[in-house]
Amino acid sequence: MLSRTADNIYWMTRMVERAQNQVSVLEAAYRMEQLPGASAGWDAILNVSGQYDSFMKKYDELTTKNVLNFMIFDADNPSSIYSCWKAGRENGRSERNTLPEEMYESLNATWIEMQGLYLDLLERKGFRDFFEWLKDRSELFRGLTVSCMVKDEAFQFARLGTFVERADNTARILDMKHHILLEHDADKDLIDYYQWGELLRSLGAWQAYRAVYKTELSADKIAQLLIFSPIFPRSLHNSYDEIATSLSELTPDATSLTMVSQEHAFLHTGALEEILKERSLHDFLTDFIGYTAKLSNQIRADFM
User: Fold this and answer.
1) Which of 259, 254, 252 is nearest to 303 (CA)?
2) In the Cβ-directed half-sphere of 237, how many Cα atoms lie within 13 Å?
3) Distance, CA of 179 to CA of 39 (rounded, Å)
4) Fewer CB within 10 A of the terminal residue: the chain, N end or C end?
5) For the chain, percent of residues with pLDDT exceeding 70
6) Higher model confidence: residue 218 or residue 148?
7) Residue 43: per-residue pLDDT
8) What's the pLDDT band for 45 if we cut at 50, 70, 90?
């Protein structure tokens, strides 16, 4: 496969996954803001996504409307939902001869419909329908990837893009919520409970948590699920499972496969208690995000 083709497919699926994660974060924060005494934590969202400085250069005030416009529609923000779908669609268009027709058409149809949306319209109609629509479109595209693509090299690069991005975003979302909760006063236990609940819902993990633990929400158990669970699809462990599988299918000798194996071994055998003996959860997640970024760079160096 041409390295350019591998690169386009890798970033196509990364951008779709990123757009869906942005939607989930914004939806959870927007719901939290509706609760009396609760904070959406817009500053934390911007900080964890690495967009705070860019936002403050463009907007005078940290308001819900400004953050939503920046994170959904701002073409100057490379991680806005608009920019992610545009990049995903452009990468897909470059590989129309490689991809199943259904995959490109789903990308293109979503992108075309995005052109008719703007913030004032969403404010009038309500954000809930928009969030649900975009999550459905992302899941449709991902389902078409699995059900329509031949399980060849192109498919493996599509899977790599999805799960590298998913590992990064799960770590960022967990770190963001942890940061918000640390700022709460001790008498806000109910708000803390809703914050953890919204974290689980933003990652589609509410039912998974109930199935695995069958207990009330616990910060430690939530972190254990999202980091170490081998059966939850959005955990760091499961994401690295999928990355290792795809890299093994591509070649047994890549440096990126060695990198994945090292981190995967820890996620496979580790536990939250081991992390907290040596460092804070924030420090672990920061290191993990940095390691995943290096892994992405190594994948591109190996293949693209």
Assistant:
1) 254
2) 18
3) 12
4) N
5) 93
6) 148
7) 86
8) confident
Residue 1's pLDDT band (boundaries 50, 70, 90)?
A: low
Nearest CA to 18 out of 76, 88, 74 is that of: 88
Whole-number Cα distances in Å, 112 to 55, 141, 172, 195, 300: 26, 15, 29, 34, 30
Q: Is the pLDDT of residue 34 over 80?
A: no
pLDDT above 80 (res 202):
yes
pLDDT at 168: 96
Q: Residue 235 region, left (φ>0) first, then alpha (ψ -120 to 50), else beta?
A: beta
CA distance 72 to 206: 25
- Single out the residue of 196, 238, 237 nearest to residue 218, CA to CA: 196
How far apart, in whole angstroms, are the C-alpha atoms of residue 156 and residue 137? Answer: 21
For 63-105, what is each residue's pLDDT tens digit? 999 999 999 999 999 999 999 999 999 999 999 999 999 999 9
Give mean pLDDT, residues 17-31.
90
Q: What is the 3-state secondary structure (H, E, C) of the chain?
A: CCHHHHHHHHHHHHHHHHHHHHHHHHHHHHHHHCCCCCCCCHHHHHHHCCCHHHHHHHCCCCCHHHHHHHHHCCCCCCCCHHHHHHHHHHHHHHCCCCCCHHHHHHHHHHHHHHCCCCHHHHHHHCHHHHHHHHHHHHHHHHHHHHHHCCCCHHHHHHHHHHHHHHHHHHHHHHHHHHHHHHCCCCCCHHHHHHHHHHHHHHCCCHHHHHHHHCCCCCHHHHHHHHHHCCCCCCCHHHHHHHHHHHHHHHCCCCHHHHHHHHHHHHHHHCCHHHHHHHCCHHHHHHHHHHHHHHHHHHHHHHHC
